[in-house]
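Re: that backbone. Tokens:
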């Protein structure tokens, strides 16, 4: 009994420390202002909504048993995301599952805080779990002496092609490594009164390290993982595609805050393939320069 009480006390102290850290963490210098700028939330298609900032895409999916939030932006964005969700008419406290496309500070900076506020369960691909525990310090590209986001321990580790279900809704997680070891995309179906849509929230495989791949000792499979991801992503079929950054899927060319509900503007496979080809070209050039 004494050991159990000691364990509970230790856990409470750990949670308290993480909460205190999340209030004081600072993003790295040079963080673009577009990453924290407000943007009006809107309905994308069916039960899928945009609740992120001007450039950091965060997605709310509503279900019969609560809601799913994918990505949380910077550590300073928790209040903004809460405001966006409530502006759409939903309860922030109804957030039940938290997901992320990658373990970088610009996509899960506020994850620990939102988890604390809502009590939602955080799920992540297993290969990103270790870097989450030190707040990004051990990340092969963006790591350093200090954490760039509050450390967070996942409630569940996901595997490739695993299905996450909440209420009457399911989505599939697709492992697309390279950008981080556990980078992933999500694919699912949604519908409105007119039709159904197959939606891909793609984690685009941009290269973040300046080192030659062979010099990235923390990630010996990085070149192989990127190659796998490009091949895998080109085989996907969908109606609508979105991404981790609004700029990646040209949100601001397709949608203005005063626009109504127009899912068709996000049906842009040509733009998806064009973006993938540009990123793959950069990857090929890097491989070539490594030799």
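Recovered sequence:
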């Amino acid at each position: 009994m004494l050991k159990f009480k000691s364990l509970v006390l230790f856990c409470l102290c750990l949670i308290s420390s993480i909460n205190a850290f999340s209030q004081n963490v600072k993003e790295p210098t040079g963080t673009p202002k577009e990453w924290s700028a407000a943007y009006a939330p809107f309905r994308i298609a069916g039960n899928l909504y945009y609740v992120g900032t001007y450039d950091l895409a965060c997605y709310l999916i509503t279900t019969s048993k609560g809601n799913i939030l994918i990505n949380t932006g910077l550590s300073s964005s928790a209040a903004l995301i809460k405001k966006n969700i409530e502006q759409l008419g939903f309860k922030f406290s109804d957030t039940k599952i938290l997901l992320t496309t990658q373990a970088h500070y610009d996509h899960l900076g506020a994850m620990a805080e939102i988890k604390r506020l809502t009590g939602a369960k955080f799920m992540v691909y297993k290969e990103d779990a270790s870097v989450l525990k030190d707040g990004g310090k051990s990340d092969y590209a963006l790591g350093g002496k200090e954490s760039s986001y509050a450390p967070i321990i996942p409630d569940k580790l996901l595997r490739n092609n695993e299905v996450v279900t909440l209420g009457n809704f399911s989505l599939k997680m697709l492992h697309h490594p390279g950008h981080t070891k556990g980078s992933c995309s999500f694919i699912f179906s949604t519908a409105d009164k007119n039709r159904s849509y197959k939606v891909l929230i793609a984690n685009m495989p941009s290269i973040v390290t300046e080192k030659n791949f062979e010099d990235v000792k923390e990630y010996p499979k990085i070149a192989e993982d990127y190659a796998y991801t490009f091949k895998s992503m080109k085989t996907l079929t969908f109606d609508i595609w979105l991404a981790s950054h609004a700029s990646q899927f040209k949100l601001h060319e397709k949608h203005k805050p005063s626009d109504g509900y127009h899912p068709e503007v996000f049906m842009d496979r040509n733009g998806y393939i064009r973006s993938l080809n540009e990123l793959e070209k950069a990857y090929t050039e890097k491989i070539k320069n490594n030799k």
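The chain has one domain: 34-290. The chain has eight helices and twelve strands.
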